[in-house]
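> call design_seq(struct)
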């Protein structure tokens, strides 16, 4: 139960990140959590435990052998998604799950018809929320699993291993988790993020990602006398969204299919603001999507007879595959550790990103391994206890494989 109690303790910390913040970490709760974890890592006797000014926590499990063994790392993130409240989650354990719908509260139900993958965990113990907040398994499960695995090695000094580095990063959910990560100081030859979903996931492909922040510039006059005078910024924003292909939206795509995804719209006749994310695994298609955005905005300018927009288009991260596939042993070691834990590896592309995507381009190959949760960024989030236990087993297994 130590792993479960650790996880339940971690999710009690409110660490929602904030994209509008100008600080790192973007919210104070992340730093509070980092310092709590630092104290815990010292108690379990890890070395070199530090929390820097930006909230990055690093620590070391020293080698207990003179053999020449590569230094590897394990990474998870402190923050939770701003998509749903992470304030005071009320987690509970559904013991020996019966395979039926789970009532989180009177209005929020984990229906097996809507979330059929939950049925595969019949007979297991599942941690859920009360349906008013997310759970925080993304990625506090990853943190709990890494800490538990490191504690296992401290408590079993008879197991030979090399140096293992640990890092917990802020602001991953807003794309800034690797922004201030000091790869040279971390001093690992490669690493793994423990930030994936269901048991068995092993990922080294992710989206190329960009964000578009668009301001539509209108002109307001009295609506009774607006003919040939008014330019409605809300209509411009609506026009823009209507020209995004419906078949290339998140709700209509899967596997390697990219998408356009409007995430926020606000404003009035005078000014309207739209946020949009662009995703594609293929670099050429990714670039084409960005160009399409620009062409639609130019068409709207022509329709209204003048430049009616300001655009900030910024790349966020790129597909790590081109980096990680140059180090195939990194994937092979994780596969072997999973197989020895009785898990069939599920190698598939991430329909998102991880800190590992950016770190791979900073010369730290960093594929992603399951943490065990489902329905991340949602009040329907849940995680089977047995999946968390297997994640710990895989982390331990990777260290042992590297140390052979």
């Amino acid at each position: 139960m130590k792993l479960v109690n650790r996880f339940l303790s971690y999710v009690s910390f409110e660490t929602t990140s904030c994209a509008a913040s100008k600080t790192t970490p973007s919210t104070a709760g992340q730093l509070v959590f980092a310092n709590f974890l630092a104290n815990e890592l010292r108690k379990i006797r890890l070395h070199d435990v530090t929390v820097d000014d930006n909230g990055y926590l690093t620590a070391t499990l020293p080698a207990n052998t003179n053999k020449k063994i590569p230094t590897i790392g394990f990474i998870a993130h402190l923050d939770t998604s701003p998509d749903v409240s992470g304030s005071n989650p009320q987690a509970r354990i559904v013991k020996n799950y019966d395979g039926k719908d789970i009532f989180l509260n009177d209005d929020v139900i984990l229906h097996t018809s809507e979330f059929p993958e939950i049925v595969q965990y019949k007979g297991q113990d599942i941690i859920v929320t009360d349906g008013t907040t997310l759970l925080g398994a993304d990625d506090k499960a990853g943190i709990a699993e890494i800490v538990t695995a490191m504690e296992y090695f401290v408590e079993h000094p008879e197991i030979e291993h090399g140096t293992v580095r640990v890092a917990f990063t802020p602001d991953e959910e807003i794309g800034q988790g690797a922004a201030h990560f000091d790869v040279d100081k971390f001093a690992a030859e490669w690493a793994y993020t423990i930030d994936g979903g269901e048991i068995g996931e092993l990922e080294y492909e992710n989206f190329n990602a960009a964000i578009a922040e668009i301001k539509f510039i209108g002109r307001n006059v009295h609506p009774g006398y607006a003919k040939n005078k008014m330019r409605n910024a809300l209509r411009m924003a609506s026009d823009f969204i209507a020209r995004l292909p419906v078949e290339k939206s998140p709700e209509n795509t899967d596997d390697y299919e990219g998408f356009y995804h409007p995430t926020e719209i606000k404003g009035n006749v005078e000014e309207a603001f739209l946020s949009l994310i662009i995703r594609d695994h293929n670099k050429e298609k990714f670039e084409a999507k960005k160009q399409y955005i620009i062409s639609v905005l130019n068409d709207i300018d022509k329709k209204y007879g003048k430049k009616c927009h300001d655009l900030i288009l910024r790349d966020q991260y790129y597909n790590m595959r081109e980096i990680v596939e140059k180090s195939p042993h990194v994937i092979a070691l994780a596969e072997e550790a999973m197989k020895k834990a009785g898990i069939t590896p599920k190698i598939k592309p991430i329909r998102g990103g991880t800190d590992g995507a950016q770190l791979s381009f900073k010369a730290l190959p960093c594929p992603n391994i399951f943490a065990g949760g489902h329905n991340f960024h949602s009040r329907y989030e849940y995680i089977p206890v047995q999946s968390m236990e297997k994640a710990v087993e895989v982390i331990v297994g990777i260290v042992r494989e590297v140390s052979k």
